[in-house]
């Protein structure tokens, strides 16, 4: 067995791997992906079983603690989460500092980073109790913060959490309720939202999770780490893709224009890509995309919504999956392909899509952060570089340059 660290120290050699396509950064027992087979498991449980049989908070417990909870454990966990759904009253003022048309992800980066300023009593990362409280706080407060970002943009009063509601229902309540009339959370929407949250809960060492780990490796507090994760998730090649999918489907607009866009996606001189297609790890159907497609049909049927964008999406999928280019490059729909259509049917604005992804992924981030902090071989993350700059230059004073 080669001691890699000793080898690096002695030889000064390192691996040059832009985009970390073949570099493992950590050991983890949380999530497993077999990209060729299209398999995703959390702590050994298949994602399809979890999405069909569990609530989001059950999956959150599983990711954090390693096992599915029994009834008593679950009730204790749910109680612990509901204890923390409120945010400090002064955080209202944070929201007021943003422009009304600010992107919710910009608001979330700021507000979540700012949580460390309010919750000092859970930022000692060497203390297991602090780590647990911070994890609960982040999972509990994220729906409140995301919903408030939406309410603020709408110019509506911010709705306080209701602890008599389950996690997904409470989020929908904070998104859509107004103080002047009663709001009943639809069980269909609540179930669909819960399932969407499960499907986005964790996905091993993707860009945002790696960002959370790298940030945390310096000893930064968990609120700052999750704020960094939110920033990374925002990009259109990552969590921003669900927003980009809906924009693309709207641009395509009608079935007859689908072939034109498939052609553009194949053109090397055109930067256009089919949003919601392709994945760094899956070279097969993303198992989450299959569940998402099914959920999309269920939600639209239950709501009696006929969305022509769903027809465009299905036609795009059909044509792309029969096309040589997509077959050869193993480009299949990913989790983001259908989620936007569901969100749209629910009345959620496009700008909130990635924010909801962030709220779901917070569970994975805190589970991965806890795993990293308690890993005895963990060191500060410090990638190397292949230096391509100038070798040596003689200094020239400014008036001689
Ligand atoms: N449409 C058209 N061609 C594509 C697409 C696409 N969506 N995705 C990849 N390709 C092509 C590339 O042009 C490239 O072709 P080449 O080998 O001839 O140069 C080849 O497939 C490999 O693509 P890479 O970008 O090298 O693959 P990588 O693993 O780096 O990227 C990614 C994966 C970012 C997801 C990419 O497939 C993409 O941009 N997809 C669209 C955005 C998207 O849906 N992102 C969501 C990802 S899932 C998530 O974050 C939850």
Brief description of this entry?
With 401 residues, the protein is mainly alpha-helical. The protein is built from 18 helices and 3 strands.
Task: Provide keyphrases for this structure.
mainly alpha, 18 helices, 3 strands, 54% helix, 2% strand, Citrate synthase
Largest sheet: 3 strands, antiparallel
Shape: globular
Q: Please work out how many helical segments DSSP would assign.
A: 18
- If you compute it from the alpha carbons, what radius of gyration comes out, rounded to the nearest whole angstrom? 22 Å
Query: Would you report the number of β strands?
Result: 3
Fraction of residues in H or I helices: 40-55%
Q: Which series of helices and strands comes N to C?
A: HEEEHHHHHHHHHHHHHHHHH
Widest sheet, order of strands: 1-2-3
Mean pLDDT: 93
Outline the low-pLDDT stretches: none
From the helix content, strand content and strand pairing, which structural class follows?
A: mainly alpha
Terminal CA distance reads 54 Å
Cofactors and ligands present?
Answer: acetyl coenzyme *A
Q: Approximately what portion of the residues adopt beta-strand conformation?
A: under 5%
What does this structure look like?
The protein has 401 residues and is mainly alpha-helical. 54% of the residues lie in helices and 2% in strands. Strands 1-2-3 form a three-stranded antiparallel sheet. It starts with a helix and ends in a 28-residue tail after the last helix. The relative contact order is 0.14. The mean pLDDT is 93. It binds acetyl coenzyme *A (ACO). Residues 237-239, 241, 265, 273-280, 329, 331, 334-336 line the site of acetyl coenzyme *A.
């Amino acid at each position: 067995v080669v001691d890699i660290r000793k080898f690096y120290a002695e030889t000064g050699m390192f691996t040059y791997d832009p985009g970390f396509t073949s570099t493992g950064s950590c050991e983890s027992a949380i999530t497993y992906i077999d990209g060729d087979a299209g398999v995703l498991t959390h702590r050994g449980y298949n994602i399809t079983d979890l999405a069909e049989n569990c609530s989001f908070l059950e999956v959150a417990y599983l990711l954090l603690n390693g096992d599915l909870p029994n009834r008593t454990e679950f009730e204790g966990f749910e109680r612990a989460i509901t204890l923390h759904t409120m945010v400090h009253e002064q955080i209202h003022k944070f929201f007021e500092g943003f422009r009304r048309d600010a992107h919710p992800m910009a608001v979330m980066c700021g507000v979540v980073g700012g949580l460390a300023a309010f919750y000092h009593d859970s930022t000692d990362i060497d203390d297991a109790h602090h780590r647990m409280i911070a994890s609960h706080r982040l999972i509990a407060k994220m729906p409140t913060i995301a919903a408030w970002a939406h309410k603020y943009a709408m110019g509506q009063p911010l709705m306080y959490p209701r602890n008599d509601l389950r996690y997904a229902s409470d989020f929908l309540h904070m998104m859509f309720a107004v103080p002047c009339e009663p709001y009943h959370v639809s069980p269909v929407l609540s179930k669909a939202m819960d399932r969407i949250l499960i499907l986005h809960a964790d996905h091993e060492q993707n860009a945002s999770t790696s960002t959370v780990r790298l940030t945390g490796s310096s000893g930064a507090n968990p609120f700052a780490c999750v704020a960094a994760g939110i920033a990374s998730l925002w990009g259109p090649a990552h969590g921003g893709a669900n927003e980009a999918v809906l924009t693309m489907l709207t641009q395509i607009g009608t079935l007859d224009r689908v072939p034109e866009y498939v052609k553009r996606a194949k053109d090397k001189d055109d930067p256009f890509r089919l949003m919601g297609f392709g994945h760094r790890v899956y070279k097969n159907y993303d198992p989450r995309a299959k569940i998402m497609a099914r959920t999309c049909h269920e939600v639209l049927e239950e709501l009696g919504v006929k969305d022509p964008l769903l027809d465009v999406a299905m036609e795009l999928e059909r044509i792309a999956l029969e096309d040589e280019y997509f077959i050869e490059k193993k480009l299949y729909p990913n989790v983001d392909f259908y989620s936007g259509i569901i969100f749209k049917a629910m009345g959620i604005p496009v700008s909130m899509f990635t924010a909801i992804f962030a709220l779901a992924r917070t569970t994975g981030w805190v589970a991965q952060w806890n795993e990293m902090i308690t890993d005895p071989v963990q060191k500060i993350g410090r990638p190397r570089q292949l230096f391509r700059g100038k070798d040596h230059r003689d200094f020239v004073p400014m008036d001689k340059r």
